[in-house]
């Protein structure tokens, strides 16, 4: 029986077509199985996030996956960690310059910090800061622990970077922080290196202007502006010199010149919070009230949040 | 406490606990070698780095904390873990540096003020209520890209002449630079690049230093 070459050829074409359709469909489907982080509030989805986080904790998954949960990780992880696509989407938790935030700095011990994290209200306007003494005591991996308790929070790593900017940005990105704090008094090369690495790794850079007399001079020298500048009255300064006040006058000076958010640290009372907001602060950083787990910190945070509305 | 009549080689470990351990184990036991726990390692693993170093090194351990605030709190934590010396930033508020120096004196450990980014170290030292044990003169790692910024050897004799404190020079990375730092009057030469992990060059630096010491 003679071969019908036309029939064979068209059959082969049809087969190729369906193979292509099935292949592209399966590939597309794999990429699409994801949970939008903003909608991940149902128990099942939260469990999935928690499961992934516990895997990260036990070292079964590349730790950068935490970063991916908040939408910051290099998409290359999809090639090496196919499980990752089942959990996350790339929508990031970010700061909105039209909103005002309360930044709760954790500086005491981890036992107190855990209680505080459990009691804090679920608000996108609460930022969690791992303070410098806290990081120096427990190491940067403490941020992974914080993420376990607050999977959707915006976490700031107060590394106070003064040298090795790229190295420190990578440290923070690897454990899933959303932002790193560098020092404004650091050499300009360091701030630029930190800023570049933050951009690469999808982190926000905060610049702490503690002990900087002329913030505008520092900002002018930078290759790229930070997301937030932090005006500061140091803890030691506050204790030894009552004349040293929070430099509120610099808020409008900075905002007048640059479109960046301004955070104020060193406020302790509701009155301080009120005056920080009145003077134009976008973020108010509090630590004393959250240093130890005392009383109802949840209610306290609610009260502070009401002040900065 | 360190002796100003001696010369020291300070080796900074910045990478990981595993490298810290293997690095320390490969060092010869000598009182003129100082093990520094670098700032990135402290930020990476916390106070655990000092505990690990102390388990393997009975000599001098310096914690490069680079305190910027809460001088006393951070100092206390690391001194109780076994550090013999701690650094604080010269760029920090004077209140912080003062609190740091006083706390170090109370705890009987050495206090070093790191002058990274400080244009005029004298201005800082003049303002202190109590003299620090030492000063670190610095060219930062990121600053090294700017060739105009050099290790400020010129300050060594001026500071030592006025304050008789220990001087550590950081920023040199070869045997020649270690010798230059000591020749220029530094009591301590700080190195790190060839020691994370330890390379042949690093081993040569140690041998050369011990031969001259």
From TrEMBL, chain A:
Protein's UniProt keywords contain Lyase: yes
GO biological process: 'de novo' pyrimidine nucleobase biosynthetic process; L-ascorbic acid catabolic process
Annotated ranges, domain Orotidine 5'-phosphate decarboxylase: 101-303
UniProt key word Lyase: yes
Record's keyword terms, sorted: Lyase
GO molecular function: 3-dehydro-L-gulonate-6-phosphate decarboxylase activity; orotidine-5'-phosphate decarboxylase activity
Pfam family, one: OMPdecase
Protein name per its UniProtKB record: Orotidine 5'-phosphate decarboxylase domain-containing protein
Originating species: Candidatus Magasanikbacteria bacterium RIFOXYC2_FULL_42_28
From TrEMBL, chain B:
Pfam families in the record: OMPdecase
UniProt domain Orotidine 5'-phosphate decarboxylase: residue ranges: 8-209
GO BP term, pick one: 'de novo' pyrimidine nucleobase biosynthetic process
Gene3D superfamilies given in the database record: Aldolase class I
Superkingdom as given in the UniProt entry: Bacteria
Keywords: Lyase
Xref: InterPro entries: Aldolase_TIM (IPR013785), OMPdeCOase_dom (IPR001754), RibuloseP-bd_barrel (IPR011060)
Keyword Lyase found: yes
GO molecular function: 3-dehydro-L-gulonate-6-phosphate decarboxylase activity; orotidine-5'-phosphate decarboxylase activity
Entry keyword annotation includes Transit peptide: no
Protein name: Orotidine 5'-phosphate decarboxylase domain-containing protein
